Amino acid sequence: MRIRKATQQDLHSIMQLYENARAFMREHGNPGQWGTTYPPQNMIETDIRFGNLYVCIEKDTIEAVFFYKDGIDPTYLKIYDGQWKNDAPYGVVHRITSSGKVKGAASFCLDWAFSQCGNLKIDTHENNIVMQNMLKKNGFTYCGRIYIDNGGERLAFQKDSQYPEESLEAILLSYKVSPNRTFIYALISSTHFSNPSFPLFRHRS
Protein backbone atom coordinates (compact mmCIF):
# COMPACT_ATOMS: atom_id res chain seq x y z
CA MET A 1 0.00 0.00 0.00
CA ARG A 2 1.05 3.58 -0.54
CA ILE A 3 -0.29 7.03 0.30
CA ARG A 4 -0.58 9.95 -2.10
CA LYS A 5 -2.48 13.21 -2.29
CA ALA A 6 -5.95 12.92 -3.76
CA THR A 7 -6.77 14.59 -7.07
CA GLN A 8 -10.00 15.75 -8.65
CA GLN A 9 -9.80 12.68 -10.89
CA ASP A 10 -10.23 10.55 -7.76
CA LEU A 11 -13.46 12.28 -6.77
CA HIS A 12 -15.92 9.63 -7.98
CA SER A 13 -14.09 6.79 -6.23
CA ILE A 14 -13.74 8.85 -3.06
CA MET A 15 -17.41 9.76 -2.90
CA GLN A 16 -18.29 6.09 -3.40
CA LEU A 17 -16.13 5.19 -0.41
CA TYR A 18 -17.96 7.75 1.72
CA GLU A 19 -21.35 6.49 0.54
CA ASN A 20 -20.37 2.96 1.51
CA ALA A 21 -19.11 4.23 4.87
CA ARG A 22 -22.45 5.89 5.66
CA ALA A 23 -24.23 2.64 4.88
CA PHE A 24 -21.81 0.72 7.11
CA MET A 25 -22.40 3.16 9.96
CA ARG A 26 -26.17 2.80 9.68
CA GLU A 27 -25.88 -0.97 9.73
CA HIS A 28 -23.67 -0.89 12.84
CA GLY A 29 -25.74 1.34 15.09
CA ASN A 30 -24.20 4.67 14.14
CA PRO A 31 -26.62 6.41 11.74
CA GLY A 32 -26.09 9.90 13.11
CA GLN A 33 -22.37 10.54 12.71
CA TRP A 34 -22.35 11.12 8.96
CA GLY A 35 -26.10 10.94 8.31
CA THR A 36 -27.00 10.59 4.63
CA THR A 37 -24.90 13.35 3.06
CA TYR A 38 -21.67 13.91 5.03
CA PRO A 39 -19.10 14.68 3.86
CA PRO A 40 -20.62 16.75 1.02
CA GLN A 41 -18.84 16.75 -2.31
CA ASN A 42 -17.96 20.46 -2.13
CA MET A 43 -16.10 19.82 1.15
CA ILE A 44 -14.09 17.01 -0.43
CA GLU A 45 -13.32 19.16 -3.46
CA THR A 46 -12.01 21.86 -1.11
CA ASP A 47 -9.92 19.32 0.80
CA ILE A 48 -8.37 18.22 -2.49
CA ARG A 49 -7.78 21.77 -3.70
CA PHE A 50 -5.90 22.69 -0.51
CA GLY A 51 -3.85 19.49 -0.62
CA ASN A 52 -5.24 18.03 2.61
CA LEU A 53 -6.96 14.91 1.28
CA TYR A 54 -5.02 11.68 0.85
CA VAL A 55 -5.79 8.28 -0.59
CA CYS A 56 -4.38 4.86 0.13
CA ILE A 57 -3.60 2.88 -3.02
CA GLU A 58 -3.35 -0.87 -3.36
CA LYS A 59 -2.87 -2.37 -6.82
CA ASP A 60 -3.88 0.89 -8.51
CA THR A 61 -7.17 1.02 -6.59
CA ILE A 62 -8.19 3.57 -3.97
CA GLU A 63 -8.88 1.55 -0.84
CA ALA A 64 -9.02 4.32 1.78
CA VAL A 65 -9.27 8.09 2.06
CA PHE A 66 -8.59 10.59 4.83
CA PHE A 67 -8.03 14.26 5.61
CA TYR A 68 -4.66 15.12 7.16
CA LYS A 69 -3.25 18.48 8.16
CA ASP A 70 -0.57 19.82 10.49
CA GLY A 71 -1.55 22.60 12.84
CA ILE A 72 -4.25 23.81 15.19
CA ASP A 73 -7.75 22.45 14.78
CA PRO A 74 -10.23 25.00 16.23
CA THR A 75 -12.55 22.26 17.50
CA TYR A 76 -9.70 20.88 19.61
CA LEU A 77 -8.96 24.11 21.47
CA LYS A 78 -11.39 23.14 24.23
CA ILE A 79 -11.68 19.63 25.61
CA TYR A 80 -14.09 18.50 28.32
CA ASP A 81 -14.05 15.69 30.89
CA GLY A 82 -10.35 15.15 30.32
CA GLN A 83 -7.28 16.69 28.72
CA TRP A 84 -4.94 16.26 25.80
CA LYS A 85 -1.75 14.32 26.45
CA ASN A 86 0.42 17.34 25.66
CA ASP A 87 0.40 20.86 24.22
CA ALA A 88 2.97 20.15 21.52
CA PRO A 89 2.35 20.85 17.81
CA TYR A 90 0.20 18.15 16.24
CA GLY A 91 -1.42 16.81 13.13
CA VAL A 92 -5.08 15.90 12.71
CA VAL A 93 -6.96 13.22 10.81
CA HIS A 94 -10.59 13.62 9.80
CA ARG A 95 -13.02 11.87 7.45
CA ILE A 96 -11.10 8.61 7.32
CA THR A 97 -12.74 5.57 5.77
CA SER A 98 -11.75 2.49 3.82
CA SER A 99 -13.33 0.10 1.37
CA GLY A 100 -13.06 -2.78 3.82
CA LYS A 101 -11.59 -4.92 1.07
CA VAL A 102 -7.94 -4.62 2.09
CA LYS A 103 -7.15 -5.60 5.65
CA GLY A 104 -5.35 -2.91 7.61
CA ALA A 105 -5.85 -0.09 5.10
CA ALA A 106 -7.22 2.38 7.67
CA SER A 107 -4.48 1.50 10.15
CA PHE A 108 -1.92 2.03 7.39
CA CYS A 109 -3.34 5.53 6.85
CA LEU A 110 -3.11 6.34 10.56
CA ASP A 111 0.47 5.07 10.70
CA TRP A 112 1.37 7.27 7.75
CA ALA A 113 -0.25 10.32 9.35
CA PHE A 114 1.56 9.69 12.63
CA SER A 115 4.86 9.38 10.79
CA GLN A 116 4.34 12.92 9.47
CA CYS A 117 3.94 14.59 12.86
CA GLY A 118 4.69 12.28 15.79
CA ASN A 119 1.71 13.74 17.65
CA LEU A 120 -1.68 12.94 16.15
CA LYS A 121 -5.23 13.88 17.18
CA ILE A 122 -8.53 12.51 15.91
CA ASP A 123 -12.14 12.28 17.06
CA THR A 124 -15.10 10.02 16.49
CA HIS A 125 -18.74 9.55 17.48
CA GLU A 126 -19.60 7.75 20.71
CA ASN A 127 -21.64 5.25 18.68
CA ASN A 128 -18.77 4.47 16.33
CA ILE A 129 -17.50 1.50 18.29
CA VAL A 130 -15.61 0.10 15.30
CA MET A 131 -13.55 3.27 15.01
CA GLN A 132 -12.94 3.52 18.74
CA ASN A 133 -11.60 -0.02 18.82
CA MET A 134 -9.36 0.62 15.83
CA LEU A 135 -7.92 3.76 17.42
CA LYS A 136 -7.12 1.94 20.65
CA LYS A 137 -5.58 -0.92 18.69
CA ASN A 138 -3.34 1.61 16.94
CA GLY A 139 -2.04 3.16 20.14
CA PHE A 140 -4.41 6.09 20.55
CA THR A 141 -5.55 7.18 24.00
CA TYR A 142 -9.00 8.52 24.84
CA CYS A 143 -8.53 12.08 26.13
CA GLY A 144 -12.02 13.56 26.62
CA ARG A 145 -14.89 15.10 24.68
CA ILE A 146 -14.88 17.89 22.12
CA TYR A 147 -17.63 19.67 20.19
CA ILE A 148 -17.57 20.10 16.42
CA ASP A 149 -18.89 23.08 14.46
CA ASN A 150 -22.51 21.90 14.37
CA GLY A 151 -22.53 21.37 18.15
CA GLY A 152 -22.22 17.60 17.97
CA GLU A 153 -20.23 15.87 20.67
CA ARG A 154 -17.26 13.70 19.76
CA LEU A 155 -14.79 11.49 21.62
CA ALA A 156 -11.25 12.81 21.31
CA PHE A 157 -8.19 10.59 20.93
CA GLN A 158 -4.49 11.28 20.70
CA LYS A 159 -1.33 9.35 19.95
CA ASP A 160 2.04 10.83 20.78
CA SER A 161 5.58 9.59 20.68
CA GLN A 162 7.06 7.74 23.62
CA TYR A 163 10.18 9.82 23.03
CA PRO A 164 9.81 13.63 22.83
CA GLU A 165 11.24 15.10 19.65
CA GLU A 166 13.74 17.26 21.52
CA SER A 167 15.15 14.27 23.43
CA LEU A 168 15.43 12.19 20.29
CA GLU A 169 17.19 14.99 18.44
CA ALA A 170 19.76 15.26 21.24
CA ILE A 171 20.39 11.50 21.08
CA LEU A 172 20.85 11.56 17.31
CA LEU A 173 23.20 14.52 17.49
CA SER A 174 25.31 12.67 20.04
CA TYR A 175 25.82 10.07 17.32
CA LYS A 176 26.88 12.88 14.97
CA VAL A 177 23.65 12.44 13.02
CA SER A 178 22.03 15.65 11.78
CA PRO A 179 18.31 14.78 11.83
CA ASN A 180 15.56 16.65 10.05
CA ARG A 181 11.95 16.76 11.23
CA THR A 182 10.70 14.19 8.71
CA PHE A 183 13.41 11.73 9.74
CA ILE A 184 12.63 12.18 13.43
CA TYR A 185 8.91 11.62 12.96
CA ALA A 186 9.48 8.58 10.77
CA LEU A 187 11.84 7.11 13.36
CA ILE A 188 9.63 7.68 16.40
CA SER A 189 6.67 6.10 14.62
CA SER A 190 8.66 2.93 13.99
CA THR A 191 7.53 -0.09 16.00
CA HIS A 192 11.18 -1.08 16.32
CA PHE A 193 12.08 2.21 17.93
CA SER A 194 9.62 1.65 20.80
CA ASN A 195 11.55 -1.48 21.72
CA PRO A 196 14.08 -0.85 24.55
CA SER A 197 16.55 -3.12 22.77
CA PHE A 198 16.58 -0.78 19.76
CA PRO A 199 20.29 -0.46 18.82
CA LEU A 200 20.31 3.32 19.24
CA PHE A 201 19.76 2.82 22.98
CA ARG A 202 21.28 -0.61 23.53
CA HIS A 203 24.78 0.53 22.63
CA ARG A 204 24.73 3.80 24.55
CA SER A 205 26.80 3.91 27.75
Keywords:
alpha+beta; 7 strands; globular; disordered C terminus
Let me know the number of strands. Answer: 7
Number of helices: 7
* Outline: globular
Structural class: alpha+beta
Largest sheet: 7 strands, mixed
Helix percentage range: 25-40%
- Sheet with the most strands: spatial strand order: 1-2-3-4-5-7-6
What's the oligomerization state? single chain
N-to-C SSE series? EHHEEEHEHEEHHH
CA-CA gap between termini: 39 Å
Strand content: 15-25%
Which radius of gyration do the C-alpha atoms yield?
Answer: 18 Å
Please provide a brief summary of the model.
The protein has 205 residues and is α+β, with helices and mostly antiparallel strands.
Outline the secondary-structure elements.
Blueprint: E1 2-5, H1 11-27, H2 41-49, E2 53-58, E3 61-70, E4 91-98, H3 105-117, E5 119-124, H4 129-137, E6 141-147, E7 153-160, H5 165-174, H6 181-188, H7 199-202
Parallel strand pairs: 4-5
Antiparallel strand pairs: 1-2, 2-3, 3-4, 5-7, 6-7
Characterise this structure:
This protein is an alpha+beta fold and 205 residues long. Helices cover 34% and strands 24% of the residues. It contains 7 helices and 7 strands. It has helices at residues 11-27, 41-49, 105-117, 129-137, 165-174, 181-188, 199-202, and strands at 2-5, 53-58, 61-70, 91-98, 119-124, 141-147, 153-160. Strands 1-2-3-4-5-7-6 form a 7-stranded mixed β-sheet. A hairpin with a 5-residue loop joins strand 6 (141-147) and strand 7. It is globular, with a radius of gyration of 18 Å. It starts with a strand and ends with a helix.
